[in-house]
């Protein structure tokens, strides 16, 4: 594999032991992927930072790297952790969990990873079409590739961190034009009416992931545009939960040119959409409404604020998950919402925090991704649209 003189110097330890180790690991991954060379990255996003998911082994790995003096070479951000860093006392986390989660955040911060603790870096970071980045949260990877037209593989958290430290990624997979072509066309035209009328983009996403698996799908007939940020977020996150792909080309949304001549095609029957939705419609006695997978944007939080401004308190608790930036920017509304039984959390989410400890075992969500993972964790789940979920919360169901 070709290495630039600068990369040889890094491997020789001229920039320290930690950077050499990181680059050595990236080179090994690149060789396994058959890459001819590495590519310089502009940004990295590191996932897998919840103590709930990575445990003591992950914590030791991160502290070990930090001790050796590892520092990121490019701007880097963090995915959500296991709790809200301010409201954790209300989230039923044990002392041990709390201490270890803060140690994870500190180890990463010491290496220069900004504790943004959000899974929507695409809403805040300056990432442009054609930029090479190293991201490791599936919804963020899918958004970067599919909507922005940036280039990243669907890396694991440790690899994204090593790429951040070395400033390089293997020039392989979705960093290359040849792997960004559609391999399966999924035509939603026959089902578009039910999806659009009922706003079932998260169900469409679950279906896309199931059908495409690791292939790059080209999705047609959904009528989405780049302005439909909320629906595109929900669709991509759900597709990334049931599928392993890192790019979903969406007609009218994805900025890349593509040629689908001769590519296998499937048409989606409306019945199939209903069947997939049925998988996530458990009967609940008293569910808690959880919204914000992926994290809610400011606009989405303002929509919820406006919904409750015209109504009394929620009869069933509502939990909103967003970035610290959005949390801070809504100021006094946090308290007003709390008085209406609506709780806003930052830095974490319903999937990576110990949800049963503070919300119970039954959840209503509008997120296909959250429904998929929470069901796998044993929760009873009802997947609704955002409107339906809020109506459920205030007892206005039809
Ligand atoms: Fe984000 Fe948690 Fe969902 S990290 S995409 S809100 S599972």
TrEMBL record:
Keyword line: Iron, Lyase
Catalytic activity: (R)-5-phosphomevalonate = (2E)-3-methyl-5-phosphooxypent-2-enoate + H2O
Pfam families reported for this sequence: AcnX
Superkingdom in the source lineage: Archaea
Keyword Kinase among record annotations: no
Domain Phosphomevalonate dehydratase large subunit-like: 1-388
InterPro entries: PMDh-L-like_dom
GO molecular-function term, one example from the UniProt record: lyase activity
EC assignment: 4.2.1.182
Keyword flag DNA repair: no
The protein's role, per its UniProt record: Component of a hydro-lyase that catalyzes the dehydration of mevalonate 5-phosphate (MVA5P) to form trans-anhydromevalonate 5-phosphate (tAHMP). Involved in the archaeal mevalonate (MVA) pathway, which provides fundamental precursors for isoprenoid biosynthesis, such as isopentenyl diphosphate (IPP) and dimethylallyl diphosphate (DMAPP).
Known partners and oligomeric status: Heterodimer composed of a large subunit (PMDh-L) and a small subunit (PMDh-S).
Protein family (similarity comment): Belongs to the AcnX type II large subunit family.
Protein name: Phosphomevalonate dehydratase large subunit
